[in-house]
Design brief:
By secondary structure, this protein is mostly beta strands. The chain has two helices and 16 strands. The chain folds into two domains: 153 residues, no CATH class; 58 residues, no CATH class. The chain has a six-stranded antiparallel beta sheet with strand order 3-4-5-6-12-7, with no helix packed on it. Strand 4 and strand 5 form a beta hairpin. The longest helix has 8 residues. The protein starts with 9 loop residues before the first strand and ends in a 22-residue tail after the last strand.
């Protein structure tokens, strides 16, 4: 079939909205086959490095929260487990968030520039001192730790050549002032872009049936599934759209904060300071 007869709108407690889909032809073709809803209603993200549980999706501040079951956890203490670094397909509209801080354990001091304390603790020292990880009192005692913000997945792979294990901490917003009211939690924040087109906007218009945007799995052409039988899927009626998303399609891309130079981790020609 070119498109599933039904586009599910949730997987367990997690809502599935555009641009994502868990059925054939649902959502945007840029995100096809990335999300999986298991028989037990567990949402998962498929990447080149594996399949990872998805804990949350935000569409207002577009991002997913995923976890790597093989990353270091509080219960591991000073023990390390064999782990492969998390990675994303660079051909997709997914990217690692700047809200992530990666902590690498038992790194080679000969190959890695060590930071004396986790850099994420510098954001809110009253919530996290230099010896405590979130939820893990004194977990760092007796073990070296290096905090590093990589530009991409390749940087994580590079660090894992010299460290025994790693974990990821992201910053969750609590209130209306996201830059000042955050707490660290374990997980990997993955940001995504929302492709917006006039055809999809018209399809979703409640006055015209409140449809669902999808695509033909063979041709990748736009298809719309409408709640009103009188509305024909895959067509656009003669409606004047003046000044709003003119053209075939416009990408809404979140502004990224200016990147800081790498002051610790593994130096390369791309990130070295001299």
């Amino acid at each position: 079939a070119r498109k599933s007869p039904l586009c599910r709108t949730s997987c367990g407690p997690i809502p599935i909205n555009y641009p994502f889909g868990i059925d054939n032809g649902c959502g945007s073709p840029y995100y096809q086959n990335l999300l999986i809803c298991t028989d037990s209603a567990q949402l998962q993200l498929r990447t080149p490095s594996g399949i990872y549980p998805v804990h949350n999706i935000s569409y207002t501040d577009p991002h997913l929260i995923v976890t790597d079951p093989y990353m270091w956890a509080c219960g591991d203490g000073l023990d390390s487990r064999p782990v492969g670094p998390f990675s994303l397909d660079t051909s997709t509209r997914l990217r690692l968030s700047r809200e992530n801080d990666y902590l690498f354990f038992n790194c080679s001091e000969r190959d890695v520039i060590m930071e004396p304390k986790p850099v994420f603790c510098n954001r809110f020292p009253e919530q996290c001192d230099s010896t405590n990880l979130p939820g893990c009192a004194s977990a760092l005692r007796g073990s070296t730790c290096c905090s590093y913000y990589p530009k991409g997945s390749e940087s994580i792979r590079m660090m894992m050549r010299h460290c025994s294990s790693y974990t990821s901490v992201y910053w969750r917003n609590l209130g209306t002032r996201p830059d000042f009211d955050q707490i660290p939690e374990y997980g990997i924040r993955v940001e995504f872009e929302i492709p917006v087109t006039t055809r999809c906007l018209l399809c979703q218009d409640r006055l015209k049936g409140g449809g669902t945007c999808g695509f033909d799995t063979r041709t990748q052409d736009f298809l719309g599934e409408h709640n009103r039988p009188a509305v024909v899927a895959g067509t656009v009626s003669a409606v004047s759209v003046v000044g709003v998303f003119a053209g075939a399609g416009i990408w809404y891309v979140r502004k990224m904060r200016a990147k800081s130079p790498v002051t610790h981790g593994v130096q390369t020609n791309d990130n070295r300071l001299f």
